[in-house]
């Protein structure tokens, strides 16, 4: 009788616990639905205003005329020269780029809004008796999270709509001082923490080169617009590859600098208080020379320091471009944590051979263990256990691409550890050592965080020791394991971002140069280790046949100019550049 009584009591406790858990779940679901309904009018209003604005601009600038066509036929260098010589007005050029940008947007959904002040800025330039600066009249596109006075920086979140910024970002201020005309803001994935490009407010941005694929993220709108010719120069941001991955997917150039060489002041961040992960501004362009020029102008004469005393007052170093010496470059072609596939390895090898043929010295470089690097990244990125992200997600519609992240951050830490342990077991459709790294991520207490920062410091020192021993200038490596993939597949292979995110972890500057295309001839066999994060990779690559593949060049901290020089050097050795040179000499 006593045993049956105990069983009865245990049953009551279990049922009571389950009932409480169910009540908690139902309460949170109900609260979420209520919060989402409260934000829905905001989203609908934002969509309506955006659509009306595009229609009005379309009626005015939708048809490309002869003058517009002639402007777009100019090389970037000729365009700058014609603006400097007053052969073209800033207003003419602005209207030509609005017209082209509307065309690209119609194909890719890349623009959030056009900047109303752009016409005023262009007219002020035209009314001047002198040239304002070296970028006089050049239209520049701006990523959503780069603040513009009077406009939102939404991060794809409804709660950030209709909260206009009260000041320009420092980079926008400097660009305006240089004579540039920021003219539009471009789309991003919700919270910026995805290499897809979709959010519930502005929708999904597609790749200009292939509309079935993503342009990358989080600077995906920039990449699509620039790739399609709607902008010649764009400002993005990069905390895990958010400039370099979109450039890789879209066949353009991009660079992320060492922390604080370009001022982050006025960028609305996804993880504002993160420690040990360097989120930095980045620059994007189809023209490597324009990319270098823009970086140089931003760094010269302490222009940023005038607005931001935390921006490092390190002047532009033109020495690499003056010396034009042969370089010593380390290289690696794959990381076991997420092996490359398709033509990616061959493209890196071809770049290595081209550099060697040009007289540079290439040496194998040994990277740290991929699992240790990614565990460190996850521990530092999510040291608040996702608190900030969860707060941002309150009441928001969560895109499918971010649903795994959202669900993982809802779990208590002890349950995350259980889930991560289960994922490491050899269970079909569940096993993923790579996925477990993300689920388990987060330094829980101050000691954990300090220990992890110590590990980071030791890993950086090991890299620099090897770098110095080999007397390297740069490091050549893949940008990503494969080319662009469908937006719907990005959430299933988040670990693939290891090739870019590690350089934010270590705070080394890095840039990307397109050097080949995916042929689809080397996709199989591929050892997926029975890991569900690797399993979709071959299918993804089959979707990307014909898409560009870039190489990544990495430099030591504060050697940003060397990275840019290396990018220019590699660009001159691309097959298309060589063919162009041969045609010019005939």
Walk me through what this model shows.
- This protein has 21 helices and 13 strands.
- It is α/β, with parallel strands linked by helices and 586 residues long.
- The model has no long low-confidence stretch (mean pLDDT 92).
- The strands form two sheets. The protein has an eleven-stranded mixed β-sheet with strand order 1-3-2-6-8-7-12-13-11-9-10, sandwiched between helices.
- The protein starts with a helix and ends with a helix.
Offer a quick outline of the entry.
This protein is α/β, with parallel strands linked by helices. It contains 21 helices and 13 strands. It has helices spanning 2-61, 66-73, 76-84, 90-108, 118-127, 170-177, 220-227, 244-250, 288-299, 319-323, 344-357, 370-381, 387-393, 403-410, 413-423, 433-440, 446-469, 498-506, 537-542, 560-571, 575-585; strands at 111-114, 139-143, 181-186, 198-199, 203-204, 234-238, 253-256, 280-285, 328-331, 361-364, 474-478, 510-517, 548-554.
Chart the SSEs and their pairings.
Layout: H1 2-61, H2 66-73, H3 76-84, H4 90-108, E1 111-114, H5 118-127, E2 139-143, H6 170-177, E3 181-186, E4 198-199, E5 203-204, H7 220-227, E6 234-238, H8 244-250, E7 253-256, E8 280-285, H9 288-299, H10 319-323, E9 328-331, H11 344-357, E10 361-364, H12 370-381, H13 387-393, H14 403-410, H15 413-423, H16 433-440, H17 446-469, E11 474-478, H18 498-506, E12 510-517, H19 537-542, E13 548-554, H20 560-571, H21 575-585
Parallel strand pairs: 2-3, 2-6, 9-10, 9-11
Antiparallel strand pairs: 1-3, 4-5, 6-8, 7-8, 7-12, 11-13, 12-13
